[in-house]
Amino acid sequence: EVRLVESGGGLVQPGGSLRLSCAVSGLTFENYWMSWVRQAPGKGLEWVAYIKQDGSEKYYVDSVKGRFTISRDNAKKSLYLQMNSLRAEDTALYYCARGHKGLEFWGQGTTVTVSS
Amino acid sequence: EVVLTQSPGTLSLSPGERATLSCRASQSVSNNLAWYQQKPGQAPRLLIYDASYRAAGIPDRFSGTGSGTDFTLTINRLEPEDFALYYCQHYGTSRSFGQGTKVDI
User: Fold this and answer.
1) Chain A interface, mutation test: which of B33, B71, B94, most A Cβ atoms within 10 Å?
2) d(CA A37, nearest CA chain B) in Å
3) d(CA B53, CA B59)
4) Which of A44, A103, A104 is closest, CB to CB, to B100?
5) Low-confidence ranges of chain A (pLDDT < 50)
6) In terms of C-beta density within 10 A (0-12 exposed, 13-18 middle, 19 or more buried), how is residue B34 classed?
7) pLDDT at B93 (0 to 100)
8) Rounded to 10 degrees, what is the CA torsion of B79, A102, A105, A63?
9) Residue B40 pLDDT
């Protein structure tokens, strides 16, 4: 069974930090690019970041550059997103997803709420 | 940064009809474009990649065409389960999604 399970979301104050994790099972992890995509309440999808198979290349949407860091541990089949200096506009459901030419497998997401 | 503009915002149709969704890129993305379907409370589902290739398990009533800046997702003979939100996404060095088209009954 294919599973991508995100965790680490929660309520955090503006300026705070969170680390999201995505545990992958039932499919090959180390051979694929991985991404984080978010969706603010009632809004559309926004790609956040993606990382190459070996972690050597990482790309971010402009709004999170310098604040978010994507990483992966292929031995643990896990993807991470370190989020610092969080803002209200980062409030969203955060999905991890596998794929390069299209995101073919998705988790169910973890909710991040940035509020005082 | 490539901006993807989807039209129309909402498409009101009936089961059995054909849906034609448009996605226009602000600059050429070659054929590096995917389409997704999203239903309330669910993660998106990949339908089409490389502009015209159906993902695994996607029925052949879904088809994608286009290259460069203009792309179309066509859904022939709408089934009740096809009424949902649809997004396009490009995957160059930067990546972005369109704002979505809702296919409504």
Assistant:
1) B94
2) 10
3) 12
4) A44
5) none
6) buried
7) 84
8) -110
9) 95
In the predicted structure, residue B8 carries a pLDDT above the cut 90: yes
CB distance A44–B98 less than 8 Å? Answer: yes
pLDDT at position B32: 96
Here the tokens at position A73 are 């541990």
Concatenated DSSP letters for A23-71?
Answer: EEESS--TTS-EEEEEE-TTS-EEEEEEE-TTSS-EEE-GGGTTTEEEE
Tell me the DSSP string of B30-44: TT-EEEEEE-TTS--
pLDDT at position B25 is 97
Contact residues on chain A for B56, CB-CB shorter than 8 A: 104
Q: What is the mean pLDDT of residues B7-20?
A: 96
Q: How far is B86 from B22, CA to CA, in rounded Å?
A: 10
d(CA A73, CA A89): 28
